[in-house]
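Anyone else keep sequences and structure tokens together like this?

Example one:
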Amino acid sequence: MRAWSLPLGRWFGVHLRIHYFFILLLFFCVLSTNLSGTGSWRGVVLWLLLFGAVLCREAARAITAAWHGLAVRSILLLPIGGLFSYSSPEMAERASEGGAQLALTIAGPLSNLILAALIAALIKGATSQVPLAKAPFVTPSHLMRSTVWLNVALALINCLPAYPLDAGRLMRSAFARARGVAQATRAASGLGQMVGIAAVVVGLALLAIPGAGLATGVSPWLIMGGFFVFIGAQLEDQGVLFQSVVETVRMRDVMLTDFDTLSPSDTLSDALYKAIHSLQDDFPVVRGPNLVGIVSRQGIVQALRQEGNGYVQAIMSRAFQVAQPDDSLGLLIRRIGGGRLSLIPVAESGRVVGIVTWQNLSSSMGLLAEYRRLERGGNDRD
């Protein structure tokens, strides 16, 4: 979820993030107002109305998830809705089961339809000068009407059987009972990508028909909707692939076994000298066999510049996570959560036997994949 997204804070224990393409849509809305000669502020408000509609449906889905005992860890917002990340793979599997998945599928579109009906009733009660059924349905020139139809459009698009839309998730749940969650997700996300491409093609075709695409305002939104369905399906596909890989990787598979340590009683100048002759950016600090802290190369240099020579004990961090050699990489990632720890010590019987750093993890994973491929090739030849 961190890729191509910005954090919006933590709300009621849930990390909220917005995809960069959602922000890019804001510039499209502003550009469309400039081309049509209306005020740019209308484009901003139109984008905020869509953002509010997405928030409404995701709040309803999060409440529904909590009602079913599902702990949502984070939500990634896209213009077509949100992608949930749960606190554990077991929780994600429970969310994909029939009863919970059906409730989540209904909650999103139903919340948007209720909101659309309430706003339409308020408009009709306040004035008869706003024609709700007049094209174009979504336009910066008529924000009150657009509010109604944005919510209706979100509800309808999520009724399409295209993953990761709500109906697509329900379809994935049915697939999972016969083919397993991972395989079902791959199949459903592939279908979702095809539906997204088809929507873009249809939208482009409507542009070529006078009075069919631009006049109704359907074509641009169909193109954007298809694009975001395609992006959402790809994100889910990559997420499942990543999850399936990290759950099979143990810490002993990727940890560095040749590493340097520091002592709390080492001076900062001695620590800096050791850092000069090491490729490590971070060092475990041990007292005898026991791990007592972590210190970074940058922290050593900064302390020497600001306070002069001292001891490692004064600047080491005591906030760290310790992994076991047989812990899965997925378990470690979930344990860290939103933290940004740069070094993870791996301990066995209280003794540090390895370290995992984010700077070497990608190369270690690549080498491990190559090693496993060679092993499989050797076994096949045997």
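And example two:
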Amino acid sequence: MSAGKPQAIEFEYKRHGTQTLIAGMNVTTGKIIGECGATRTEEDLKNFIERVVTENKGYKKYHFVGDQLNTHKSESLVCLVAELCGRTDDIGIKGKAGILASMPSREEFLSDPDKKIVFHYTPKHASWMNQIEVWFSMLARKVIKRGNFKSTEELKEKIMAFIDYFNKTMAKPFKWTYQGKVMVA
């Protein structure tokens, strides 16, 4: 690569697969918790949320910020949150009744601030509002971009090693610099 010329990719380039990183950031410390896997299902997210809450006992409230991805408003996530919040009443049937009736009803339940686990959803096309997305950009620039990984296991190892390194040496709360000033064209 040189100035003014696009990056060339060798014709021997072979894709060895992908990994999905489900991660969160403790905004008060800047530390990252993450899991790599082959899938990005509602069960994967539910297990991650359960892990975060279980490994971080003692908080009066847990706040999670997510985008509009359907797994962030899934039936299994609602069931987990209801269970962890000690809810024992009927929460309905997916697609038919109660809290589980629709994605909007599930979002309303998950967003309810009167529970100990509360989800906050960023607007569509506003991933920059979620601090973990800013961190994902750092991961992409420092580890993944132009990386050459011989297997998904090697990719996973590099990602998890970067999380460990980041938590030991770079983790701190992000300082927002946007002042809310109106942009004039």
